[in-house]
Write a structure and sequence with these properties.
mainly alpha, 10 helices, Arc Repressor Mutant, subunit A, DNA-binding, homotetramer, Tetracycline Repressor, domain 2
Chain lengths: ~200, ~200, ~200, ~200
DNA sequence: CATGAATGAGGCTTCATTCAT
DNA sequence: GATGAATGAAGCCTCATTCAT
């Protein structure tokens, strides 16, 4: 019988993750020290290490949590009825990204997670799973596009999902690093290129 | 060995950059120590520091060099005559990316540079410049698309460039982290979505 | 070993300062490495850096502490009743200096601190403050000399303090570097020159 | 038969010493790198090492040269006729010191040499010799004082020299570190304390 | 359960000196 | 004689992690 409630433990865990998110968003995984996390969380070293067995463990938990949230956002935007156009979906998701891109926002963790995934086998694992899961969401969308007649009956919906999901990292980077583009800019570009369900069609 | 030629100096510099590229591609900026670079380059610490004043300086030089090469590749693919379709351009660039994505290939530096740019002001500067330069290349392409009648006369070519260039980070990440997609997959997706200059048009 | 007493912390701090004093007295600030201090103190690098944020910080603390002690010695010798003669005061202080001039004695830090003060702005600050404080003590003494009629009523007591305190660095250097002079030698010289309160007066 | 004249060699040597003096006066022995000396002298590393076999060798040559000059200044001031009062001698010497105490003046080397002498056996040797030589000059002066009847016939002239020469380091330090005292201040203090040959006598 | 002092390997960089050209 | 590229030991300091209290 545990001394403290399960709920208390979970609260502590989240408190640490929240603190880590701030630190990592501000200074990156490497430049944030565990001391930074202790200070930000208001907990002692020992306390933090009771909940996470290493810094990498915190990073993994945080990255996973953030990616799950992002996938939820995508799924929500995509599953709307009636079938939203690509530009509409992209707009919604991009707006959500922007809303979470502040100086301490979780979106800033994404590029760091990608980078880590190239170098750290454990990170490769969970980033890969997260990307695959998101791609699955887009594959569903591509299916719906085909079903709606927006894509040829023999369209490769996997390839379509690969292409469309690929737009998001590009948007995140341009937004975070250059800061000169908005969801509307991206949407306009997408709408120009992919005028499905729009009054006119390209090349038409 | 004093009074060496300018050429010798340049060769040494490149020798160091080549060694650093291998190290960084293998283990990342942070997990590669300067000792790794010394060993890989076959030079002593002092020798390396004669050519670069810090590790960050090496990273900057390498990232810049790599991004300039990538921009060159893009420009070449894009400026072909007659006007290549988006799928054609993307295919060429993606093939080049894949060719340079081996375990020690320079493309592995890209996500690390993005990540660094979020955290290191100097890196923000040169990554931003590189992205803007690449986007400029795509803006030229978007102009040509419009001139060719593939885009409406009033199309926002900047927004189109933002969208299209955004496909590449997504491809790089999916290729490097998941490894299950090829230039052809991406091209098929793009062609399905953007059948400009293709026999059939979407939604048609 | 957390939650230790304030006293424990202070003891650790002093333990480090004591070790540093030995090292610096033996080999000087520059030729003593932090490794030397770690070894001498029996603590790890991390432990030492918990108490002092840099080598310069240790030097500053040590120099300041030593100079405060020296000032205390001076004040004590000077404030004796009835008014001691310059030769008496100098004798007491010189004896104290000699007692602390052993191979590992704190007096060996003094010339190093002077030297550092010429080159390091932070050191300039604390050495200047220490010298000014000591000079203040001597100014009090000069006032008492004047009050006792040993100096003319219009004597410039500041200038007198400047001159008298100036004797000490000379004594320290001759004692440490040449090693052939004693407090008694110095006292004899001073008494010969400044026979205040002595049976005979100079030039008399 | 040497390829270059003896004179040329000596000029080169002095060129290096002059450059080193500037560097060392500005930044101290330790914080001046040999690179600094190469740059300041306009010579290459190899050239400098042809004339001096090590950095310590340069320091030794410079310190010795500077101290010989200082001794010359002292001797000149002291040997004046008729016998100058202590205050007069001190004034002359202090003025010379001040004139050579600029930001790049050789006097700034003195405290560094003292400090080095505590730590480096070779430096101990030449600094000791220099101090002894200077003290010899002051012993001559003390003899003259005695001969003039300013000191008792049985005065310990060695002790007097020890005391008087000791004033100079104190002046140098107060001038260099605090910067608030002038030769006149010191002279006034000395004249007040040691009014030999002055209208009135202390304690008289 | 929590605390936070302590560890110690390892990171980046400097610098006096050498020697091939 | 002169050059300056190269060496490599050694310096200062950080930081993830542990464990005695």
């Amino acid at each position: 019988m545990p001394r403290v409630s399960e709920e208390h433990l979970e609260r502590r865990r989240q408190q640490i993750l929240d603190a880590a998110r701030l630190c990592f968003a501000r200074k990156g995984f490497h430049d944030s020290s565990m001391q930074d996390v202790f200070a930000e969380s208001g907990l002692s070293a020992g306390a933090v290490y009771r909940y996470f067995k290493s810094k990498d463990d915190i990073i993994a938990a945080l990255a996973t949590q953030t990616m799950i949230e992002l996938r939820g956002t995508m799924a929500e935007a995509i599953n709307a009825e009636p079938l939203p156009t690509p530009a509409e979906v992209i707009t919604l998701i991009a707006r959500n990204i922007v809303a979470r891109s502040g100086p301490e926002g979780p979106v800033r963790l994404a590029p760091q997670a990608w980078s880590l995934a190239l170098v750290n086998p454990e990170a490769t694992g969970y980033v890969r799973e997260a990307i695959l899961a998101m791609r699955g969401v887009w594959e569903d969308y591509a299916e719906r596009m085909r079903a709606a007649g927006w894509l040829p009956a023999d369209a490769d919906t996997h390839a379509v999902a690969v292409a469309i999901i690929g737009l998001l990292p590009g948007f995140i980077l341009q937004h975070l690093i250059i800061g000169d583009i908005t969801p509307e800019t991206l949407a306009r570009g997408v709408r120009t290129l992919l005028p499905y369900g729009e009054p006119a069609v390209p090349g038409g």
